[in-house]
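sry for the spam today, last one i promise. struct tokens for design, 553 residues
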């Protein structure tokens, strides 16, 4: 429930602090005094749009805040904890509007986006405005009211989710169809590119291998010549070879080892060198024996290398990257070429999601059929009690799967018969202003009773109602206030007399400044205000006597 509203420099309010209690609170005042300013300020705390014109003349900014107790609002407590904004069992919503039109929003002292004010506000309070009866004529608003009365948020959420899944599947198919021509052109390009690559068939690692082989074969004559020269110098020359010279050095040194032991290590090194020379000569002979001169193979390798280099240049990659590119193009071709099968899968998915949505829409339809019978019966009883003794109310529901939406596949129409013998017709065709106000009031009260919202505000919804009907409206709101906090802005003494708490709004002008204030009335103050509402500014004994009859303490 809302416990306090603080207003600073908003509209014609300088400073205002309003405390609210449980039950029904009435707000009255003269025409033009600003009875709805408190409601407008509260709307800002709930995330309504704002601009600089809301700031009191001469002030730098407007600042409004509303405090709520969350004892009876577990959903709001959960939301605050999930968003790390909880502050015990209280919630304070605040809005500051600056001269540039920008505003700042706060929840429990922490800066938040305005959208979060809306999210939490919907759980804390519902505002029913004086133009509610005009919206009541719209089919979409009629469906919203029935949804509120039905009180099936999970089923409605499933319907929305299923509908959106169907729409997303449809979009994917439409996107596929839109891109069909582009895919065909790309597929043709891939076929052209792959024709050459498939014929060449590049192999991963092949380029490096044949490049090495090509270098070896292309230089085979030089390799043989130089290798043979090395063999000759090492071991096969007629006069001096490295091997012979090394052996002579060993022989000379062997005679000295016994005389000088320190030369033994040198001798060992020469001996090891002699062995290494013999092994090197052997390896070179073996290499030369196996090295072939093969001009045909050289040409074959040269052609392969040239082709790979040319294809790589054409596709803007390195020669050694050509096999990887080839595999990528093959995979892309396969993927695009296989999208005819994907097309069928997309069609199947559309049908599947559509059927799922229709199943939920049918469940929603049956649920609405059930609750609308109860609601129509209750509204009929309520409007009879509100001085429409021959009134009859009904709700027509037409199910049409071709108009499937996030809200199901129903089209609702509120029907009414205001007079005996009159057939039921759409509300927009038959209800007068006064009748429409009473019907709207009955619907708002009945649907509000089904909501989890712990506080309800009715802003001059009793327009067009007077006399005995007004007393019944007041009694209806008081009964509602026994279970839910009700705040009503009214001009009817019969309504205000039923309130548990009564504020009067007044406007004062000092110099060039006009200011609005709200005062909580005691019993005598309430009697005087009810008498004023009954008889105008002149309060008489008769109007006071009538006021005593209306006042319920």
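last one done:
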């Amino acid at each position: 429930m809302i416990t306090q509203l603080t207003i600073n420099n908003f509209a014609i309010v300088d400073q205002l602090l309003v405390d609210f209690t449980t039950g029904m609170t009435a707000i009255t005042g003269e025409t033009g005094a600003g009875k709805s300013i408190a409601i407008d300020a509260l709307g800002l705390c709930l995330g309504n749009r704002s601009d600089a014109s809301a700031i009191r003349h001469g002030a730098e900014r407007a600042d409004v805040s509303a405090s709520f107790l969350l004892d009876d609002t577990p959903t709001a407590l959960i939301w605050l904890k999930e968003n790390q904004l909880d502050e015990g069992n209280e919630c304070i919503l605040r809005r500051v509007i600056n001269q540039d039109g920008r505003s700042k929003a706060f929840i429990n002292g922490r800066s938040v986006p305005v959208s979060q004010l809306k999210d939490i506000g919907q759980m804390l309070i519902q505002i029913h405005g004086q133009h509610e009866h005009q919206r009541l004529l719209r089919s979409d608003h009629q469906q919203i009211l029935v949804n509120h009365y039905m009180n099936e948020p999970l089923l409605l959420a499933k319907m929305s989710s299923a509908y959106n899944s169907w729409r997303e599947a449809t979009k994917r198919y439409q996107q596929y169809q839109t891109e069909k021509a582009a895919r065909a052109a790309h597929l043709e390009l891939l076929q052209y590119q792959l024709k050459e690559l498939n014929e060449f068939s590049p192999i991963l690692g092949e380029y490096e291998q044949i490049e090495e082989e090509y270098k070896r074969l292309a230089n085979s004559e030089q390799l043989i010549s130089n290798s043979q020269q090395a063999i000759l110098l090492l071991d096969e020359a007629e006069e001096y070879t490295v091997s012979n010279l090394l052996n002579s050095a060993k022989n000379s040194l062997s005679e000295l080892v016994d005389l000088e032991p320190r030369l033994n290590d040198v001798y060992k090194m020469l001996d090891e060198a002699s062995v290494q020379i013999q092994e090197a000569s052997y390896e070179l002979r073996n290499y030369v024996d196996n090295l072939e001169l093969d001009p045909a193979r050289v040409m074959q390798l040269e052609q392969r290398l040239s082709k790979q280099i040319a294809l790589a240049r054409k596709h803007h990659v390195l020669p050694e990257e050509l096999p990887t590119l080839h595999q990528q193009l093959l995979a892309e071709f396969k993927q695009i070429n296989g999208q005819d099968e994907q097309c069928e899968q997309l069609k199947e998915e559309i049908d599947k999601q559509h059927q799922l949505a229709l199943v939920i829409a049918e469940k929603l339809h049956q649920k609405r059929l059930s609750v609308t019978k109860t609601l129509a019966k209750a509204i009929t009883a309520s409007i009879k009690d509100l001085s429409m003794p021959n009134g009859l109310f009904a709700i027509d529901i037409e199910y049409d799967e071709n108009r499937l939406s996030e809200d199901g596949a129903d089209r609702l129409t509120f029907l009414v018969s205001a007079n005996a013998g009159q057939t039921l017709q759409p509300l927009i065709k038959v209800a007068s202003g006064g009748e429409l106000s009473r019907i709207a009031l009955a619907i708002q009260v009945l649907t509000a009773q089904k909501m989890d919202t712990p506080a309800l505000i009715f802003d001059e919804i009793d327009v067009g109602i007077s006399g005995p009907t007004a007393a019944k409206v007041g009694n209806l709101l008081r009964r509602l206030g026994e279970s839910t906090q009700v705040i009503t802005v009214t001009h009817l003494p019969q309504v205000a007399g039923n309130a548990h708490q009564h504020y009067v709004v007044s406007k004062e002008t000092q110099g060039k400044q006009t200011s609005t204030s709200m005062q909580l009335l005691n019993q005598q103050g309430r009697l005087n205000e009810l008498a004023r509402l009954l008889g105008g500014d002149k309060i008489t004994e008769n109007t006071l006597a009538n006021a005593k009859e209306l006042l319920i303490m």
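Residues 216 and 222 are 10 Å apart (CA to CA). ok im logging off now
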